[in-house]
Amino acid sequence: MSDAFRGVEIIRVSDAARTPGVDRAATEEPLEIRLHDRPFAVVMRTPGADRELAAGFLLSERVLRTPDDLGTIAHCTDPGADHPENIINVTLAGTAALDLDRVFAARRNVVTNASCGMCGRLTIESLRIEGPPIGGDWTISSSKIVAIPERLREAQVVFDQTGGLHAAGLFTREGELDGFAEDVGRHNAVDKVVGRYVMRDGLPLSDRLLFVSGRTSFEIVQKAFLAGIPILAAVSAPSSLAIELAEECGVTLIGFLRGQSFNIYSCPGRVVT
Questions:
Q1: How many helices (H) and strands (E) are present in the chain, helices listed first?
Q2: Do residues 205 and 228 touch, judged by C-beta distance below 8 A?
Q3: What is the rounded distance in angstroms from the CA atom of residue 41 to the CA atom of residue 126?
Q4: Residue 267: active-site member
Q5: Which residues are within 8 A (CB) of 94 and not within 5 positions of it... i.e. 6 or more apart?
Q6: pLDDT tens digits for 30-49?
Q7: Which of 100, 233, 240, 262 gives 20 to 30 Å between its CA and that of 70?
Q8: Which ranges constitute the DSSP H helices of the chain?
Q9: For residues 166 and 185, is the Cβ–Cβ distance under 8 A?
């Protein structure tokens, strides 16, 4: 947690008075993700859970189709590398390892910033979802849903220090927090949570609800779908494309989850009152 924020000197201004002080800022640093020692992507992130972030990112990029495609994943051990703590090398297993040329051909070498989940794709067609809609016949009560934001907020230790991090949490059908991550990017927070289960061979997450701070975009819905998550909720609004994708994928999409109210934008049958 100490790597997630840093002390910074500031000048506080109040009622025209200026006083020196110290604040805490959320850490943002680049993480280079390599495939078989070849640079693949650079993700701006908050340090911590880097292996999980890489695994979740590669799942959402469809480099990994299943957890079986993941071979090894580790920080750089090259003593000559600058900042090896900011480099992750991933090796693929089985047939995935034979498809590296296709993987690299489908991307351009860019930096993915903290607010962007699809910056490296070459074509609109590459964003299309593959696979049948999510099934899942379980339901969750609205009373359990409205309790979720406060449970996530209680876990946001670094946010308490900085006020500058997004969060993502996985919840059981009973509304209990089961997995959690913070990051300067909400996409990264989701990748960290999902990546933890990729590394545990725990997909699909068909009995979990994903809750994210901020708004819901196309990319967040896609990440939920690829992880097999049937219910996605957020504290803010979804985009029009996120709603369309959720309907197509069979994902229950919830927005404006605040206080005792929320909106359901797709597949409302999983929520009971």
A1: 8, 15
A2: yes
A3: 16
A4: no
A5: 68, 69
A6: 999 999 999 999 999 999 99
A7: 233
A8: 50-60, 100-105, 142-145, 148-155, 157-162, 186-199, 218-226, 240-249
A9: yes
Tell me which amino acid residue 133 is: P
pTM for the model stands at: 0.85
Beta carbons of 43 and 53 less than 8 angstroms apart: yes
Tens of pLDDT, residues 50-92 = 999 999 999 998 999 999 999 999 999 887 788 889 999 999 9
Q: Which of 116, 119, 249, 267 is catalytic?
A: 116
As beta bridge partners, residue 38 has 35
pLDDT in tens, 208-236: 999 999 889 899 999 999 999 999 999 99
Question: Residue 253 and residue 224: Cα distance in Å, rounded?
Answer: 10
Q: H or E element: which one contains 47?
A: none
Q: Please name the residue that has the structure tokens 């600058």.
A: 82
* CA-to-CA separations, 163 to 116, 182, 204, in angstroms, rounded: 20, 11, 32
